[in-house]
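Practice problem 4.
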């Protein structure tokens, strides 16, 4: 059974950076598209970014130019580098492999 575990969240000031990690156990990680989603309080979960098995990337307009998704298949880990963070980026961030979800990691952007 595949397990996804996110880490790297925290409290950061506006304009700051964080790097989230999503470690996968089980499954064929290198052949699977990995996506990041986020859910802010009182809002629906929304898609943030995807990296395909051949490292094609795609981003939501709200994060384009500020966030970068990447993967290291040898480490079975996907990453989300978040720069120029804004208060509206505050949310629980989840990784998703098309079937499984991690438990999420909280990102809070506040001064």
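Answer key:
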């Amino acid at each position: 059974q595949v397990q996804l575990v996110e880490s790297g969240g925290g409290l950061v000031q506006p304009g700051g950076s964080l790097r989230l990690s999503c470690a996968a156990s089980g499954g064929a990680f290198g052949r699977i598209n990995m996506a990041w989603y986020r859910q802010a309080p009182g809002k629906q979960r929304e898609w943030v970014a995807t990296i395909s098995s051949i490292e094609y990337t795609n981003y939501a307009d709200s994060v384009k130019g500020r966030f970068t998704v990447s993967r290291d298949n040898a480490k079975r880990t996907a990453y989300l580098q978040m720069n120029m963070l804004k208060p509206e980026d505050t949310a629980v961030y989840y990784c998703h492999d098309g079937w499984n979800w991690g438990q999420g990691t909280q990102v809070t952007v506040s001064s």
